[in-house]
Amino acid sequence: MGFVTASAPGKCILFGEHAVVYGHPAVAVAIDQRISVKIQPSPNNLWLLDGSSLNMNRNPHIKGLIEKLWPEQFGAPPLSIHIEGNIPRASGLGSSAALSVATAAALRMARGRWVSKTDDTQQQHWLEGFGSTITKSEPYDNSHGFFAPESPAERYHITGKSSVDYDECAILAHSVEAAAQQGIASPMDSSTCSRGGIVIISDVIEQGIDYLYQRTLAMKDATRHWHIHEMAPPTNSDEVYLVIGSTGIHAPTGKQVAKVADMLQQDPSRMKEIDTIGQIARRGIKALREGDFAAVGRTMTENQLMLSSIGVSSPELDNLIRVASPSSLGAKLTGAGGGGCMVALTRNPKETSNAIELAGGRTLISRLGSSGLSIDESQNTTFWTKP
Ligand code: MEV
């Protein structure tokens, strides 16, 4: 029987969470912890998750991806899905984005992709798919999917890794994250879990780092745009580690994002604090580009003050940040806050980790900027092809 296994890393936000939702700059790095998704044809013609019946309502990210990439109305057969990994759930480390990116990649591998005949420039063009450069929208999907019915002689079906695309996996993950967060989500998590490395989001196209794509999302109050870039880790980044400390308190991102949205609706003048986070993030980007980790750490600590001020920190996070500070260059909550995790940038990972554990936190240690999405194993991968 065929199978595909794809994996994607978690992420840790160094600067700019929450403000990035409102279009401000932010920086995230992929971490060493990953989620791996294996899919196979179902042995009993029922959707299965880790051997039990898949409850679509309790797994909205998977449900959203199936609707987009594996539409039952076109005859796509039920699958058996297995999920493994070491990214703690609901703790601000991108577990749902990593799950979504890896699932999107596995589903794409399992169906391949129709492309056109090569044109005069020997380019093949997608006849179906989702991506930042695709504007066509017909007929079976209402976002960016499309399928141009061409005569069989004019199209090819490609399979294997060449059918998988980072941008497609990230855009799909962003759309299901936004749906799970009442329509409010930045592309930070989805882009970082797909690309890996260091991802920088900005309100402008930054010079001197690689530009990837623009993302746009219509939210209730406004349509937001983000420019997404990637940056190679600075050459001296092997001098530092991230020590992530979990409070053990589950804090769903949607709830925290809604809390900030309510605060701004009740008192629009508090947008000033969000703007300040944006300015801090811009200074953080400069420090990171210069490989000045002392400044990166100081800027993280400054960012934490503003996150506290908008009410997304918690006593448990504050405590872990306080004990990590003496041995680190800087520390802050990471992700949505309200529980979940904090992160310290440190040259002494053992000392920082011990301090956090003694204060009751559980730690993970990571380098800055692990590798992104990968297809790890596959065999007889085409389980279904949209006719
Ligand atoms: C969550 O990891 C980061 C937030 O900024 C939400 C988002 O960017 O969608 C809190």
What can you see in these coordinates?
The chain has 387 residues and is of the alpha+beta class. It is 31% helix and 26% strand. (R)-mevalonate (MEV) is lined by residues 13, 17-18, 20-21, 92, 185-186, 188-189, 253, 257, 335-336.
Short descriptors:
387 residues, nine-stranded mixed sheet, binds (R)-mevalonate
Radius of gyration: 21 Å
**From the helix content, strand content and strand pairing, which structural class follows?**
alpha+beta
Largest sheet: 9 strands, mixed
Bound molecules: (R)-mevalonate
Short structural description:
By secondary structure, the protein is an alpha+beta fold. It is built from 9 helices and 15 strands. The chain has helices at 60-69, 95-111, 166-180, 188-195, 253-266, 271-289, 293-309, 315-324, 349-358, and strands at 3-15, 26-41, 48-49, 52-53, 79-85, 113-116, 155-158, 198-202, 210-218, 223-231, 241-246, 330-334, 341-346, 362-366, 374-379.
Ordered list of secondary-structure elements with their pairings:
Blueprint: E1 3-15, E2 26-41, E3 48-49, E4 52-53, H1 60-69, E5 79-85, H2 95-111, E6 113-116, E7 155-158, H3 166-180, H4 188-195, E8 198-202, E9 210-218, E10 223-231, E11 241-246, H5 253-266, H6 271-289, H7 293-309, H8 315-324, E12 330-334, E13 341-346, H9 349-358, E14 362-366, E15 374-379
Parallel strand pairs: 3-5
Antiparallel strand pairs: 1-2, 1-15, 2-5, 2-8, 3-4, 6-7, 8-10, 9-10, 11-13, 11-14, 12-13
Helix pairs in contact: 1-2, 1-3, 2-3, 2-4, 3-4, 6-7, 8-9
The structure holds (R)-mevalonate.
The site of (R)-mevalonate has 14 residues, from helix 4 and helix 5.
